[in-house]
Design a protein that fits this description.
By secondary structure, this protein is of the alpha/beta class. The protein is built from 7 helices and 10 strands. It starts with a strand and ends in a 9-residue tail after the last strand. It binds 2-phosphoglycolic acid. 2-phosphoglycolic acid binds next to loops.
Length: about 240
């Protein structure tokens, strides 16, 4: 696990975008796992600038980590909407190669199996981008006694519903469930890039890195078992870490 401490959010976003760019330059048909949330927004802005300067996304395949269950893709709070408005509409990614879990699917089990199958068919994820929740979740893999391994439907915790209510008119509108890649799906990625920014994330970053244990109480701690992980933190998120 490589920990990089960046001066601020802007530097973190630039570094993350550079890592993604290198992946695509090395292998133009890379399979990239994208994440939503506030943290990767700066990275996506950098990628859009890189595209304006010539970075070609036309051969990449993408798989998103998760989607709210119960929201149509057209809803402004869906992760479909997020990805298109913040990235995909501004780069030359092929819409046919974009995969985001379907928040309205009826046969969830079949959908999740197919999602896993499609990742495998694409050759596996070369680089998966992750944020981290204040409770240590990655994707919507929330702390629990047991963790689902593959892509699955999950209940959101109260903390996550509260945290995400900032985007909705009222907390009642926040979906209570989501379809998410499982920890097994994430761990199969060849390389993982976790981004954490701001004081809000300092406690969980310190807790996870200090403990050096793998626990379902901190889903992100499973990344200790992966051999190709970069964790990018800005100074605020690193403020409680021991140097
Ligand atoms: P954030 O979300 O980037 O909006 O902080 C991260 C997460 O909950 O995974």
């Amino acid at each position: 696990m490589r920990i990089h401490i960046l001066k601020n959010y802007e530097e973190l976003s630039k570094k993350a975008a550079e890592i993604i760019k290198s992946q695509i330059v090395l292998k133009d048909d890379s399979v990239i796992g994208f994440a939503t949330g506030s943290t990767p927004l700066g990275t996506y802005k950098e990628l859009i600038n890189m595209h304006k300067e010539g970075l070609d996304f036309s051969n990449i395949t993408t798989f998103n980590l998760d989607e709210y269950y119960g929201l149509p893709a057209s809803d402004v709070n869906s992760y479909h909407y997020f990805m298109y408005s913040n990235l995909f509409d501004h780069i030359n990614v092929s819409k046919k190669k974009v995969h985001i879990p379907d928040g309205e699917v009826k046969d969830v089990d079949k959908f999740c199996k197919d999602y896993e199958g499609n990742i495998a068919k694409a050759g596996g994820i070369d680089l998966q981008i992750l944020g981290i929740g204040k409770n240590g979740h990655i994707g919507f893999n929330e702390p629990d006694d047991n963790m689902d391994v593959p892509t699955h439907l999950t209940d959101l915790t109260e903390g996550t519903i509260n945290a995400n209510s900032r985007f909705f008119d009222s907390i009642d509108q926040v979906p209570k469930q989501a379809i998410t890649m499982g920890l097994g799906t994430i761990m199969k990625s060849k390389r993982i890039l976790l981004l954490a920014s701001g004081e809000d994330k300092a406690e969980i970053i310190e807790k996870m890195l200090k403990a050096q244990v793998v626990t379902t109480n901190i889903p992100a701690s499973f990344l200790f078992l992966h051999n190709n992980v970069d964790i990018l933190v800005d100074e605020k998120a690193a403020s409680l870490m021991e140097r």
